[in-house]
Amino acid sequence: MATFQYACPETLTEAVGLASSNPGYSWIAGGTDFMVKLRLKRIEPSITIDIGRLEELRQIRLEKETLYIGAAVTHTELTTSPLIGQYAPALKEAAGMVGSPQIRNRGTVGGNICNASPAADTVPALLAYGAKVLICGKTGQRRLELADFCTGPGRTILKSGEFLREIYFPVQRLRQGSSFQKLGKRKALAISVVNAAAWL
Q: 132-157: string of b/e by CB count within 10 Å (b at 16+)?
């Protein structure tokens, strides 16, 4: 097993500072993808920066008919949130189909996005809602469409020292509908072969 330092910053500023001063860093929030990559030796971090406990990344809030979801919100929290259930039911459906209960309890929506897997379950639902993302780094913050975030399998537009802070999109209103559908090789604990979402 690889040997590396572990840091758990208490503020966003501290997290950015740690990444800036440690070029061999890896971010971690839930850790479900991190552990797989570590075992397969796809990453060899000198330090792991845990941002999963930062309060700013763990909130789900509604402001002026826009839903804001922190990147460290877990899939279980998405499925149990009254706000998500009422205003983003397709996302609730998608989050409920991610892995096993253990994975949903640990895995985060930010990790599901940043892993940039073509089989990511929450991404189609978020794209259907027209989601945008807020990115933080040493040069400040920037916002962009989620559709422009992933550049290919396993690749994103994140620059060195940057991390995903939150995702936001307009709420689903009355007389609107949304749905998420997933096709896997079995009925449970399956990686998507095809998944799709729509918001009408």
A: bbbbbbeeeeeeeebeebbeeeeebe
Q: d(Cα 27, Cα 163) in Å, to the nearest integer?
A: 8
In DSSP terms, 197 is beta-bridged to 180
Q: Kindly report the pTM of this predicted structure.
A: 0.91
Interval 157-188: pLDDT, tens: 999 999 999 999 999 998 999 999 988 776 66
In this structure, how many other beta carbons lie within 10 angstroms of the beta carbon of residue 2?
Answer: 11
What value does the CA radius of gyration of the chain take, rounded to a whole number of Å?
16
Q: Looking at 38-95, which runs of residues are DSSP E strands?
A: 47-50, 60-63, 66-70
Window from 75-79, 104-108, 125-129 with minimum mean pLDDT: 104-108
Structure tokens at 175: 């007389």
For the chain, how far is it from start to end, CA to CA, in angstroms?
48
Q: How is the beta sheet containing 60-63 ordered, strand by strand?
A: 60-63, 66-70, 163-170, 132-137, 140-145
HEC secondary structure over 49-60: EECCCCHHHCCE
